[in-house]
Amino acid sequence: MKAQDLLELAARNLREALFRSALTTLGISVGVASLVAMLSLGIGLQRLASRRLARSGLFDTVVVYPSRMGPRPFRSAPATPPAAAPMLDEEARKTIARLPNVLEVYPEIRFATELRYNDHAHYTTVASLPPSARDSEAIESLQGRFFSGPQATEAILQAEFARELTGPAGSPASGLIGQEVVLQYAEQGALAEKADSSQRVSPAGEAASPWGFSVVRQEKKLRIVGIVESEPGGALRGPGRARVFIPLELAQSLRPVQSLNMLDTLRTSPGGSAYQALVVRVASLAQVSSTEDAIKRRGFNTFSLLDATQNLRRFFAVLDLFLGMFGSLALAVASLGIINTLVMAILERRREIGIMKALGASDADIKGLFFVEAAAMGLVGGLAGVGLGWGIGRVINFGTNFYLRRQELPPETIWWVPWWLVIGAIAFAVLVSFFSGLYPAARAAKLDPVRALRYE
Question: For the whole prediction, is pTM greater than 0.85?
Answer without folding.
Answer: no
